[in-house]
Amino acid sequence: MSGKEEQFGIGEVTARTGLEPDTLRYFERQGILPAPRRDAAGRRQYVAADVDLIRMLVHLRETGMPLADIAQFTAADAEVTDPSGLRLELLTAHRRRVEDRRDALDRALEVISRKIADYTDQRTDSPETLERPDTTIAYSVQGKGPLLFLVGAPAGRGGFAALADELAGQFTVVTHDPRGIGASHMTCGMAAPTPEVLAEDLAALVDTFTGAPAIFVGTSGGAVTLLELAKQHPDLVGSAVLHEPPLIRLLDDATLADRAASAFAVATTDPQRAVQEFFDLSGAAHHTGPDQVPPMHIALPELPAEELDKNRYFLGQMAGPTVFYQPDIEGLRRARLTVCAGSLSHHQMARRAAHALAALLRQPLIDMPGNHVGASADPAEFARALVPLLDR
Asked: Which helix (H) or strand (E) is 387 found in, with range?
């Protein structure tokens, strides 16, 4: 344009920013947006810098910045001697608010996901059952194709329901409730749910389908179960994808190990405290990129009685042996394992452990969508990333 700055009418700005003309005019009247230049006919004429500022306003408004702060941000050039300093201060404070909101939403999403799993369990047709010497294991099967076992601890059929739906078009997907979880009810005299016992339950389940090697995906404690299965029954493991096994012993972090042991020790008598302590040390409910760390502490609300009872079992009996499990690295190097972690789990305990395991197995750590609970929170995206790993 021969050196002349490009100009836009109000309709063009609406198309570029999504703000309607009436909204733009309102923001001008309220002093939230500086008034643009006008042409000889009195029509508003915006330039590229105006459009960029309006786009920033949209982002700030959508993320909940108060209008008074937005007005300071957008008018900073005219009102203060150090506009960059003021904008930095406003954005830094707003980022803290957004992160707090995101953490609260993450906690709410985790609770909602657990309830979806609970209601899925209740609505699912009566599961098939596998009799074990000391208990009964409930399992479900869906889809067509190669056998694929989705393994969790404590996640069971409900926790994998959405992911199983995504994969059922390409695989025969088997999910089960680990002993003491969901429809695999705790029974009197039942052996404790250690990785060794859970692996034997899984081996018995695999034997009901095939004597040949199968494909497995394990998340969190389920990935630890698969490490023990590969040790006890290497002939059953054709390949396995391990997502964030929380192997705290691989981190050489005595303080973190002590905090975990403390949480597990009080789980039976004070499950609320145990959940809070494990939540803080794991960081697993948060979304953290490479340059972010999870908050040291965010107070959890009081858990309902049902959740407290579940955590008396999970944190009191299952989590300790799982988290402190010591894998047989030399033996595992002979297995076809792929170690992966959430791309939004950086600086969290389970991703750090997965990174350490991958290094010991002399393989790269594969990034997956989401955080520690990506398989249940983002099942469609997780499945898309998972299938190529299963086909390798």
From this structure: helix 379-391
